[in-house]
Specification:
Distance between the termini: 11 Å
Radius of gyration: 20 Å
Number of domains: 2
CATH superfamily of the largest domain: Alkaline Phosphatase, subunit A
CATH architecture of the largest domain: 3-Layer(aba) Sandwich
Number of strands: 14
Strand order of the largest sheet: 10-9-11-1-12-13-2-14
Oligomer: single chain
Length: 389
C-alpha cells in the first residue's frame, strides 16, 4: 500500500515571485505579513525547515530540519485557485483565464437572465462581504441575483438563502457554467449564499464552486486510470470539475478538513489523498485578517504531530500552496507569490531543494512515486529525497 497526502494551504504564499510586478504585487508576502502577528506560533513547520527555504530570511533557521523543503515558482500566467491547482496537478497554463475588470459583457448577462428567468444586480468587481452589504437589501426586495467578479477569473452569484435556497442557487450556477465557455470560459462559477437582515448580512458555509474542466489530463486522471485511489477533501472536487476523482469529501472549514485528513490516515487506501484548506484564503486572506490568518496557520501547525504519528512508513506528506493572498497588502485579491513545499516521510533524507521552476514538479513526483506514465509540464524531485520505494 502506497499513499500520498497532498495538502494545499490555500493562498499560503512566501513572496518573491520574479514576475510579481507584472501582476501589481511587488513586495507582497503572505508569510512575512502574518509572521509579525502575536498569533503566529509554528514550531513544527519551523522544525520541518520553513525558515530554511530560499527567501524566508525573516524566520529562524533549523540546523536539523525534518523534511525536504523548497520554494516553488509558478509558471502559469495567473494567480487564482484554478490555475494554481491545475499546475500542481501537472498543467502549466500559458494563457490566463479571462477576467472582467469592468464586469461581464451584456451578451453574457442577457443570456444568463434569459436562461434563468431572473434579473441581476451589480455586475462589477467587488469584495464578497461588501457586495452583500451594498446590494443585499435590493436583492431581498426584488429577488434579483447579485452578480459580481474579482481580479480572479470568477463569475460569482450571491443570494439570500430565504429567497434562493442553496440548491436553487446551484442550479443557477450550472446554467452560468454552461454559458461561460469559449472566450468567456472563466475558471469558476461560485455560489455565494448568505443569510441575515439589512446591516447584518453574513455569508454561509454553503459556498459551492463550479469549475471549468482542465484542458487535458491531470495527475488525478492518470492515477484514476491506473486504478489508484484519488480522494478529494475540501473543494478539490469542485476545482477539477469532478474529473479523475474516485471519492469526494466536502468540508466547511479548515478544522473539518484536517479532521477528515486525519481520519484517512487511519484508513487503508492505495493512492492520493488531495486536501484543500480554504479558510486561509476565503476567511482570512481576502478579508485582510492578519491575526486570523496567523492563528489558522498555528492551528495547522499544532495538527501536524498527531497526523505524522498516524502516517505509515511508506507514506509521503506534501504540503504546499496554490498562490498568495497577503492580508496586509493592497486590496482584497490574490497576490502573485512563490509558495513553499514540504515533503515529509519517516524514510526520506531531509534537504533543501532550493528554488524550483514550476508547481507541476509535484505532479511529476507523484507519478514517479506510483510508477505511472504521465505526460506533464513538471520535473520530479523524488531522486533528491532518497526515498526507498
Amino acid at each position: 500500500m502506497k499513499r500520498i497526502f497532498l495538502c494545499v494551504l490555500d493562498s499560503f504564499g512566501i513572496g518573491n515571485a520574479p514576475d510579481s510586478i507584472l501582476f501589481g504585487d511587488e513586495n507582497a508576502n503572505t508569510l512575512r505579513s502574518i509572521s509579525s502577528s502575536p498569533e503566529f506560533k509554528i514550531p513544527n513547520l519551523l522544525k520541518m525547515g520553513l525558515g530554511n527555504i530560499d527567501g524566508v530570511d525573516y524566520l529562524p533557521k533549523e540546523e536539523s530540519q525534518s523534511a525536504f523543503v523548497c520554494r516553488l515558482t509558478e509558471k502559469s500566467k495567473g494567480k487564482d485557485t484554478t490555475i494554481g491547482h491545475w499546475e500542481i496537478a501537472g498543467i502549466v497554463s500559458e494563457k490566463p483565464l479571462p477576467v472582467y475588470p469592468d464586469g461581464f459583457p451584456e451578451e453574457v448577462i442577457n443570456d444568463f437572465e434569459d436562461e434563468t428567468g431572473v434579473g441581476t444586480l451589480c455586475n462589477k468587481p467587488y469584495s464578497g462581504t461588501e457586495v452583500i452589504k451594498d446590494y443585499g437589501e435590493e436583492h431581498l426586495q426584488t429577488g434579483k441575483l447579485i452578480i459580481y467578479t474579482s481580479a480572479d477569473s470568477v463569475f460569482q452569484i450571491a443570494a439570500h438563502e430565504e429567497i434562493v435556497p442553496p440548491e436553487k442557487l446551484y442550479e443557477y450556477c450550472r446554467i452560468a457554467r454552461k454559458i461561460l465557455t469559449g472566450k468567456h470560459g472563466v475558471g469558476r462559477v461560485i455560489a455565494r449564499p448568505f443569510i441575515g437582515e439589512k446591516g447584518n448580512f453574513t455569508r454561509t458555509s454553503n459556498r459551492h464552486d463550479f469549475s471549468i474542466e482542465p484542458p487535458r489530463e491531470t495527475i488525478l486522471d492518470a492515477l484514476n486510470k491506473n486504478h489508484f485511489d484519488t480522494i478529494a477533501i475540501g473543494k478539490i472536487t469542485d476545482i477539477f470539475a469532478e474529473k479523475g476523482i474516485s471519492e469526494s469529501i466536502f468540508t466547511h472549514s479548515n478544522r473539518e478538513g484536517m479532521e477528515k485528513m486525519s481520519e484517512y490516515a487511519e484508513k487503508d487506501f492505495d493512492g492520493l489523498c488531495f486536501v484543500n484548506l480554504v479558510d486561509f484564503d476565503m476567511v482570512y486572506g481576502h478579508r485582510r485578517d492578519v491575526d486570523g490568518y496567523a492563528k489558522a496557520l498555528s492551528e495547522f501547525d499544532a495538527f501536524l504531530p498527531d497526523f505524522i504519528r498516524k502516517m505509515n512508513d511508506n507514506d509521503l506528506l506534501i504540503i504546499t500552496a496554490d498562490h498568495g493572498c497577503d492580508p496586509a497588502f493592497n486590496g482584497t485579491d490574490h497576490t502573485r507569490e512563490c509558495v513553499p513545499l514540504f515533503l515529509y516521510s519517516k524514510k526520506i533524507k531531509s534537504a533543501n531543494g532550493r528554488t524550483r521552476n514550476s508547481f507541476a514538479d509535484i505532479a511529476d513526483t507523484i507519478a514517479e512515486f506510483f510508477g505511472i506514465g504521465f505526460q506533464n509540464d513538471g520535473e520530479s524531485f523524488l531522486n533528491e529525497i532518497d526515498f526507498n520505494k
